[in-house]
Amino acid sequence: METSQKAEPGTGEITLVVAQSPRYYPHVERHLKSLKKAFARVRLLYWEKDGNEPVYSFPGVETERLVLPFGSGGTVFFLRLMAGFFFRLRRMRPQSIEAIDPYALAPARLYSFLAGGRRIRIAYFSMEYFSELPSLRAKPWKRRIWRGLERWGAGGSAVAATVCDSIAAHLRADFKIPVVTVRNVPERSAVIPPAAGNGPDALHARCGLPAEAPILIYQGMLQEGRGLETALRALPSAPGIHFAVIGDGPLRESLRALAKAEGCADRTHFLGEVDFRDLVTLTRGAFAGLAPFQALSASYLYSLPGKLFEYIQAGVPVIATALPEIRKVVEGYGVGICLEPYAPETLAAALRRMREEPGLREGFLGNLPAAGAALCWEAEESAYLSLYR
Q1: Domains, the chain, ordered by start
Q2: pLDDT digits over 244-257, tens only?
């Protein structure tokens, strides 16, 4: 196995490789902050689709950016992405790597494999059960290729981590290496400075609504399996409720069309991608946060999305699908309603209950501070740093 000894805290160097823009994925910044506690030198290699964006910078971290327009996506894009990461790593010559998801893991393992006798320590962080994503379920050959690449990459890793216990158990069986659970939780809201220009009613101002209007908020990708069509079909039966959608993805235009067809376009607000530093301030203005994953595959069945914890940190009650890992949090901490089944009528009923049932939302609000204190990066960081000690 091509690994070296673990670095002692405050010594050595590490390169974090991630196929995401740190502007929109706050876990990257959290990892960088924590890595600086364990290593004397921290570098970041990340992908960005738009070269017109300024290069991301973080104090004390050396940054390399790979600019590659997504275009039509598909196999050619991912081959170019992984090749780009590999050649950057060859030039950077890191001794220790954290690779987030298979797009970063495969080039890290190839670099390690061809390192000419130098031992490279790789830690793999899987943000989801990648080989079981819904997008791969109808493409068995592509699924086998990605599964093989991930297993090959993990075979050169010293340790791995993922976001919940259920996926960790599957990855231990798949990879035969230690897998640690590190939940994708935010920092405490009090230590996240709001971006300039965001006041207490930032969400209502962004949507052009009066402060008293109840807004259901969604954060995340606009893609299959996120339950967004169900939410739009629920709105006609939840009069007065507005729906703010933060994020982007392949379903954006079809969701706009559906909102118009359902007669709720005037109550649906597509806000696009938002810098993560703005998310807490925007989310604080919401009536409820929606976490609507659907069990289209094992990856989604065991999902524990970061948006769930973002809502909790912002002090917003949650309405979610009753998937096992999500349910453990929502019902375990008493911060919202889990829907089974997740359907337009059950979602509309939950929205009406939260708005009309005496004491229901107030009870959730009362439980949120304790949940926020437990479900934060400050409490989770020790599990993350165990990868390097």
Answers
A1: 13-182 (3.40.50.2000), 189-374 (3.40.50.2000)
A2: 999 998 999 999 99
